[in-house]
Design brief:
Blueprint: H1 2-18, H2 75-79, H3 87-99, H4 106-120, H5 126-144, H6 156-173, H7 176-201, H8 207-219, H9 223-247, H10 252-263, H11 265-295, H12 299-308, H13 311-329
Helix pairs in contact: 1-5, 3-4, 4-5, 5-6, 6-7, 7-8, 10-11, 11-12
């Protein structure tokens, strides 16, 4: 069925997009054109009976544009026990369990949600959560029908159109408070990603102007988003620094002093421990590789493998040695 294929496409595209670097990739599939909703996918606007547990109070609509100035969350959203941070992760966990690795038909998926919702939401929230989860399934179906531009991670214009198209799909299924709970944190980072891409592609900027523009773009992030960005990228910076230390054969005291000044004493000690573990791992790989080169495969080599490596490490040995060969040949 068309809806089944669209939902499966949405799952595949979400998985592929999630594999891209956080600051360079889209968090979900996006495209420039919004296709027609497949048969069986609800196009009813949120705020109707069932989406808010029968409460007739009007719901705050979403902004018309992804790039519109974001309004503050409504007082009701701030106290709504369903629309809390982490809601999207909970819905994804619920859908993953309902899918059970096989089910991609939206109708069958929705039928499974009712039996599982109580494991993910308190009993008093289950009716509303199920209504929201059903619309979330329909949203994923519609998302799978979007055309994903191949250059959205390199072309600012394509990325801008993709983000706007995705926003229009979200408008069909969620109100403003639901959007804030599901997507607002990600949207802040998506806008920042676009700003960085536009700055990087602007050849008219001098290095000083580009640096200032990047600082200004980061300053526009909410304080908690800036903290999240720092946490998400700190390990990449630390890994790059360690690679540079290794390439330069930097001694341990220098490594520790540099890391302590940059990350703090506790982090410097933890990274020093990782250095020691990595060196020990490489030394054992050396010993095993030399023994295999000298005596070939056999019972003695297998015994040495068990002596040198834990059962978990043994699963990594062949891949680690293959990587060594690849790096040596490059």
């Amino acid at each position: 069925m068309a809806s089944t294929r669209a939902f499966a496409a949405g799952l595949a595209l979400v998985a592929a997009a999630a594999g891209l670097a956080w600051w360079l990739g889209l968090r979900e599939p996006s495209g420039a054109d919004v296709g027609t909703l497949p048969a069986g996918a609800s196009s009813a606007m949120p705020g109707m009976a069932g989406s808010n547990g029968g409460n007739a109070a009007p719901r705050r609509p979403m902004e018309d544009s992804f790039f519109a100035a974001r309004r503050s969350a409504s007082p009701g959203q701030a106290t709504d026990p369903l629309l809390m941070h982490g809601l999207r992760d909970t819905l994804e966990a619920l859908l993953m369990e309902a899918q059970d690795g096989e089910v991609t038909d939206p109708a069958m998926l929705k039928a499974r949600l009712a039996a599982l919702a109580g494991k993910h939401f308190p009993a008093d929230l289950v009716p509303r959560a199920l209504a929201l989860a059903g619309r979330y399934v329909d949203y994923r179906v519609a998302l799978g029908q979007l055309r994903t531009p191949k250059d959205a991670t390199t072309d600012p214009g394509a990325l801008r159109e993709a983000l706007e198209a995705r926003h229009k799909v979200r408008q069909q299924f969620f109100d403003g408070d639901e959007y804030d709970a599901l997507f607002a944190r990600e949207a802040d980072l998506d806008r920042y990603t676009l700003a960085r891409l536009e700055i990087a592609r602007n050849t008219a900027l001098t290095p000083e102007q580009r640096a200032k523009a990047l600082r200004d773009a980061e300053a526009e992030l909410p304080a908690d988003r800036r903290a999240e960005r720092s946490a998400a990228t700190a390990h990449l910076d630390a890994a790059a620094q360690t690679a540079a230390f290794n390439a330069q054969n930097t001694d341990d005291p220098t490594r520790h002093a540099t890391r302590a000044a940059q990350y703090g004493e506790a982090a410097a000690q933890a990274m020093a421990q990782l250095d020691r573990e990595e060196r020990h791992w490489q030394q054992r790989l050396d010993q095993y590789s030399q023994a295999r080169a000298a005596q070939g495969e056999g019972a003695a080599l297998e015994q040495l493998r068990h002596q040198l490596f834990s059962s978990e490490e043994q699963q990594r040995v062949d891949a680690a040695l293959a990587l060594r060969r690849t790096q040596a040949g490059s």
